[in-house]
Amino acid sequence: MINSQNIVARSATTLPAPHVRDDVVEVAKLIDVSKCIGCKACQVACMEWNDLRDEVGECHGVYDNPMDLTADSWTVMRFNEVETDFVGGEDVSKEKELSWLIRKDGCMHCAEPGCLEACPAPGAIVKYANGIVDFDSNNCIGCGYCITGCPFNIPRISEKDSKSYKCTLCSDRVNVGLEPACVKACPTNCIEFGSKKDMLARADKRVNDLKERGYEQAGIYDPAGVGGTHVMYVLHHSDEPGLYSGLAKDPRISPVVGAWKGITKPIMSAILGITAFAGFFHYITKGPKEEPTDEEVFGEDDDHHRVSREEEHRS
Amino acid sequence: MNFKKQKTMLRYGPGTRANHWAMAGAFILLTLSGLAFFHPPFFFFSHSLGGPVWSRVLHPFIGVVLFVLFVIIAVRQLKYNMLMKNDVQWMRQMGDVLNNRDDKLPPIGKYNPGQKMVYWALILCIPVLLITGVIMWRPWFAGFFPIPLIRVASLVHALAAFIGIATIIVHVYAAIWVKGSVKAMTRGRVTHAWAKHHHPLWYEEEMEKPSQRAGDEDASERDTTSHHGARNDGRTSG
């Protein structure tokens, strides 16, 4: 975490975070899936810049490598071969064609981050004014609530230190005016970086391009359910984001997480407080049930009373 | 209140007392560390277990300890917590209970219906807390469960903990409110008068046992009614 003065949201924090320097432009990374050739330069650039060395895995017979995001692999290319409507041009005899859909997966940097909502450790997750959602792993306690809260299944707990990690959108590079490492490495300009406004304009142009080429369902993936994201996709089949290795169609913070981390917190806390106060005031107004004496319970002539008097006599 | 002047009888044996206070300690630590994860204003409670990361590490283990202790005490106290004939009537007279008009209440057994509700609320909460807690437990178990299930488990864990904590607040207050009950759980003994006043049916049942009838501390201290042990050293009179 480099910048501590333009934080617009901070995990487990009820008062405003320091954000006097928040007059900054919202940034975004645009990934045009239709231009991706699956070279994995972005994966390499990510591990190079961030000094990450994941364990060398095994070949699973598919192009995906590693097979999933890990605490040391903050971005992975996901390859999916699907049959889609034919858009190849004049040959009307074909109805379907094979499409190789490759999506660079990683943190989407949601405007409303589920990880930040769920995180119980103050300051372990922050959202900067430029839109980047960053983990300050120094404050991370390793509970994994960010995994529970994330609508995209992105954060991973490291086996080394039990801290949670994910793409930082190269917040350290962006902070000094550089583009993220993956953007710099991408040989086809499939990944671009700039202000969110500029990227949306770029995306619009690309969508029009694709539509002209016959991809009628081409569109921008900037899901409103999480307030929009600071990593956006251009998809040729934006009506079916699930084709891209299970990209969520309408991602949003799960209502279960909302209930867990939202209204229940103040309500249940208040009820517990009221219960304790009710006890206190009951004691003050009604008083305790004092220990009954033998006389009260057994009367004068009972042998309980004799014992008492004998003992009294002895002492 | 003075044990010197009143005959006393065993209410909680040493095993039950040790179990109870071990559970109480575990419950307090779990409540503090759990609330720390639940709501930011309580985050500072996480220092009770040596900091937030230690809280995250230790909370589930303490939870397992609490569960095991609870199973032991729950099994041993089950027969005293079954609903009895007068319990419903006693509950109907909650106004008399709260206003300390004890003489109007129907006779009840070892536990009053309020205590039985604490018992059953915890019977409900603690296993739920264990199951949902295991589902959330990182880094050991959560990875084996689908994320939507972990979400539900997290919410249910919070709700069950809420019910459990509220129950324990009531339980603690009741102990402060009804004089003699804290001593019953710290020293094990109550006066005959206390027993007959608060738990008449239990008192009558216990009076069948010779050591209880004699008010003999040493014999019943060992949780048995058969042998008479060493002489009274006077420690329980304070």
Q: What does this protein look like?
A:
Chain B: It is a multi-pass membrane protein. The complex is a heterodimer of chains A (315) and B (238). Chain A is α+β, with helices and mostly antiparallel strands. Chain A has two domains: 7-261, Alpha-Beta Plaits, CATH 3.30.70; 264-314, no CATH class. Chain A has ten helices and eleven strands. In chain A, the strands form four sheets. In chain A, strands 9-2-11-10 form a four-stranded mixed sheet. Chain A has a three-stranded antiparallel sheet with strand order 1-5-6, with no helix packed on it. In chain A, strands 3-4 form a two-stranded antiparallel ribbon. The longest helix of chain A is centred in the C-terminal third of the chain and has 23 residues, at 264-286. The radius of gyration of chain A is 30 Å and the shape is elongated. With 238 residues, chain B is mainly alpha-helical. Chain B has a single domain, classed as Fumarate Reductase Cytochrome B subunit. Chain B is built from eleven helices and two strands; from the N terminus they run E-H-H-H-H-H-H-H-E-H-H-H-H. The interface between A and B is large, with 52 and 54 residues.
